[in-house]
Here is the input.
Amino acid sequence: MSVESPGRYVGGEKNQIIKEDVLKELRERGECTAVRTAFCFPDVYEIGMSNLALQILYKLLNSEDYTSCERVFSPWHDMDRKMRENDIPLYSLETKSPLYEFDVVAFTLGYEMAFANVLQMLELGKIPLKSCDRKETDPIIVCGGPVAYNIEPMSDFFDAVFMGEGEELDLEFIQEIKKYKDGGKKDRQAMLREVAKIEGMYVPSLYEPEYSPEGKFIALHPIDDTVPSKITKRIIKDLDSVLYPTAPVVPNNNIVHDRAYLELFRGCIRGCRFCQAGYITRPVREKSADTLLAQGKEIEHNTGYDELGMLSLSTSDYTELAKLTDGLLCAFDGRHTSLSLPSLRIDNFALDLMEKASSTRKTGLTFAPEAGTQRLRDVINKGINEENILSALRLAFMGGWSTVKLYFMLGLPTETMDDVRGIAELAKKIEDLYYDVAREMGVKPRRPEITVSTSMFIPKPFTAFQWEKQNTMEEFLEKQACLRECLKKVRSVRYIWHGVETSVWEGILARGDRRLNDVILDGYKAGSLFDAWDDNFNYERWMGILASHGLSWEMYARGYECGDVLPWDHISVGVSRNFFLKERERAYREEITPNCREKCSACGANCFKTGVCYETR
Amino acid sequence: MRQDDRAAEMTRQQHLTQYVCRARFARKGALSFIGHLDLMKVFERAIRRAELPILYTQGYNPRPMLVFALPLGVGIDTTGDYVDAAMAVPVNAEEFMAKVNPELPQDLEVLSCISIDEPKRSLMSVVTYAEYEIEAPGITEPALRLFARDEILMEKKNKKGKIVSTDIRPLMVKPFEDSTADKVHVLVSAGSVSNLRPDIFIRAVCIHEGYDPDKASEAVITRTALFGGEYPDIEGIEGLV
Ligand code: SF4
Here is the structure.
């Protein structure tokens, strides 16, 4: 096969699951009674296989008799071409079944830039792209994941959308599909209506949008009163008792994050006002260290990986971190298994832990102050101040570290040029600190490596900044240029920045409405694919197509008024709109909001009756 | 770590007593689509899953001490390759196979194994010849014509990136009698001193004998054996310790 990395198209990995029932159907053309799901990741194998949600749901959907699950990834350009030329339909890795043969085709959506790839996979899988064109025997196309919370720009292509955590919802949905399959797949519309009755399931075709004559989004109406007007996400209450894949599929070829994972907790206590991930996963629910220790040992044994990653939005906030890491290190003694501990808050404990446990030495320390001045850090509620950063770095430099990565955002609400310059000033202070520490310790300083990385702020749904205006391309570029100029004066700094164009486009998609469906379809037809890969992204083409539909950047990025109905208002993540509004006002007043463990701010997520909301403070 | 770095590493560690399990393995199907570095990782992880008393390399990033006889290119099946696994205590061959085989992904299998106490030579250094079966429509006739030539110049990039011509004829030892019209079976030089990759051989058949490159790109290549020694006195890898 003359395609790049053919290993990504063949499956056959350790711990891959192929159900007997399915094999029987394929061998004898007998009837498979289980609901067959193709779990699709709209990017290449090496990225998809690094995704924990995929591993979890793959295991879950293969855990019961009445359901089976196989994996499908987006074929890279070369394979895409070959498949079209030779009329080979997109197939699953496990049994090489074409996509159209499955009962359910489920996508996990982690980033908007993968939208075009969803269409590619459907088309190559020979499935009608639009929900309204599908027949009774076509698969049911569903999606979940962070991006699914505002699926409006892709609402035409999905039959149903999962709001919340798959482990809580998926089997209930599959049972509904099982009824449909057992009944001979007679009435698709009726089935979708039944699906819409499941709490947390959103069926886009049962709603109609309304726009003002000026082209402003006004509301999304249920087509009749049997359809729920509000869909609230579903979450797992007790993470200790939920299934976790302790024998995940181990790829044969090198993938992006080639390690095993433990999930420490979901949610985040911190409440950074720009952070969608933090809000949509509220409230914080932890796994106990005992559960994690047992799972960690099993995973290490079942995979043979020599690295175990600790996953959560903020490792240091895990309440039993010391117990967990001590236990794991003790269990892995002599087996050279390291722990990867991302987003650790640097203190003595953390430095000691990294020394003992991890492979982070290679990559250095990372900090995410996000903004350059204290004023702006207060605006975004980033509970970290300059003193925290510098005292942590003093410890690190004394311990012999010399590589530091700093992450910032440009274009945050209320940002001024002083805030932008503040980033360079902070970098300069860090550089000075390094030399000071070297002098104090009487050692000859090496040259420190300080990396400053900036991304563009993108206002996201379900955050305190969901109403904000996004910076224009010109504003972004001006800020970037200013920072670059200032950073030239700091000798040991390397500056990395993310493309402005992708951020502008992502900003449109993130807060988009249903009118973008046709834009995305046209963009795909015009050749857009793998937009998350910088050299594939064609900004001019996307903006041209947007304009040809009478839409513009301003309509989506200029922001919303507080009184406006938002395109995603029919979805609830538990955190109330009122709370977001209050947080927005506090942001303008530069007021900090305490984290969930210091004080509950009554965000609304206690409606799920679990987690940090019910801890004794 | 690169293969030769690892070999060097092993030499450095010779103060450690090593008990080597030398395994002959086969790969096909899905496993043939991965590169050599990936194959090494697949073996490392399988041996870790098998919980054998494997030794680890020293240094910052310790890895199970495995040495492969000869890298296997993407797309090449094998029925006769070798890997040495260095153990801290003696592990008998049956135990090695019984523990490792269930841990290997499908399409990869240990066929046989011998235990060697304290080998004197690195596995890589003993390989001098490899046997390949190349299956493609009508390839045998032009391939045999190629063997009839005295000199076969092939261009390749040297280490500095300059294109140089080398004669590959001395690396082509002989075709075997059992070749059929669509399957040619050959013995060629292999190993760290002089090595002829099967894809280069096929390309030579195309360039010098006019074989269709499209057919060539569909060729199924299987490495069927590795040997040490000096032709015609070649010997199996098992005994070369
Ligand atoms: S209800 Fe209170 S404790 Fe619970 S997530 Fe919201 S702010 Fe945090």
Q: What stands out?
A: Chain B touches chain A through 30 residues (CB under 8 Å). The two ends of chain B are 24 Å apart (CA to CA).
